[in-house]
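#struct-pred

JT: dropping the chains for the assembly here, can someone run the whole complex?
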Amino acid sequence: LAKTTQPISMDSYEGQEVNITCSHNNIATNDYITWYQQFPSQGPRFIIQGYKTKVTNEVASLFIPADRKSSTLSLPRVSLSDTAVYYCLVGDQIKAAGNKLTFGGGTRVLVKP
Amino acid sequence: ETGVTQSPTHLIKTRGQQVTLRCSSQSGHNTVSWYQQALGQGPQFIFQYYREEENGRGNFPPRFSGLQFPNYSSELNVNALELDDSALYLCASSLDGVVDTQYFGPGTRLTVL
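RK: done, full complex below.
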């Protein structure tokens, strides 16, 4: 399984854009990049998943360069409720439902008023 | 809401005791995975059950065991509790064979004294 590296913490202010970059230098050809969000005392929640270039949904955007050795989760115009831990995961999408998820330490994002 | 529920919400036990945690999967999901999350760390995979059979295990000793029932509810049993077993225990359900993510419950907070 590809190992991921992401910043331990980030601070931001309401209304700003938050970008979290994750490094995954040994990502495999079949691997997808998935981001989860976790609030205190709750289970992780799926945010977004992508393979290459850019993916956007109602919550976030995911930017993946051509070499796929890193990815950036972009949260537009954050609010206080976006304060959470964000995890970057790399794995085979086809097996995602049946495979174990390997979480790193995550990035703790604090949004200030 | 993910449709995955866990009980109890909180639990306090003493060293050496045994504990059973319960999870009710999202309707129709035939795969359940259990994770242990220590304070300040990412979730760690314990094991997974698919159609009532264990289908993969992480680096946890045999005193961690599980069951999955025909109605897709499941249990995590931990014998001979140790202080380091204090953590948030998460279950996640998914539908094997479908390209999908895993849906996490809110977790059970176990404290071992």
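JT: nice. Residues 85 and 112 of chain B are 7 Å apart (CA to CA). Chain B touches chain A at residues 2, 4, 31, 33, 35, 41-45, 48, 50, 55-56, 58, 88, 90, 92, 94-107, 109 (CB under 8 Å).
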